[in-house]
Amino acid sequence: MDKNGPAPLHPENSASTGGESLKNTKSTFAAEISSAERLLSAPVFPDLADSTLARIVQDMNQNGFGMVEKCIDEAHLSSLRAFIMQKVVEQRGEYGPFDPGHSGSDSLLNALSLSSEFNRSCRTIYRLGTGKTGPDQTFYHILRWFSGDTGEQHAYFFHYDSYVLTVLIPAVMPSRGPMGDLIMFPNRRPIRNTYLTNLFDKVLLDNRLTQRLLKKAMLLKLIKPVRVQLEPGNVYFFWGYRSVHANEPFDHDQIRATAVFHYVNPHADSRIRAFIKR
Q: Which domain of life is it from (predicted)?
């Protein structure tokens, strides 16, 4: 450093260099804000026509599932994928279930849960499928990802959901090898009148003997499930409460991540359920 102090600044050079830098920074920041505003302002779910919703219900009843193709915008999917990969790194694990409502994120799932279009679609599907008015209640939603050995460990776990309607939104799917397809035996039971009969169904299904028999019979092709190859951007609807379903395995070095929305637990007010859950 000069003993007389730092060299004086040259305003003309400073203005030119700093001005350009500031201008570029402002331009970049403005572009980022504009991109974020477009993402937040764009509808996260389309306003589906009643005829489309009726077709979905018909497909659910006849084929086991209904689907809307290219329903989720790529910008929203990219945001969700980035959030998932962040969680994968943070947790350093092979299995990660987490509730976005308690994760501190402004994720696609939270946006969907607040979307009037998504809420209306689920209520209408429920009404058309059950003959009852779809209640205005919050969703139970969760984001689940698998990789490595846990993907295989969770494969072929056949189960019923506790909620009538299940909405599946694939976010990250394997890029090669087995795809971890959704498999189901659709609409195998009605909506039970009591929690005890529902619990009896689950006990019959969720035990080692039944699980082994189902898996072996399926691998030997003695029984044939409905197989659904999931594609990011599409949204899949099925009667999770009524359908026996599971996932197939996929390669250990791949990641499979799905967002799941559940709507209407018919036994939410059961005292027996509340006692067991204590």
A: Bacteria
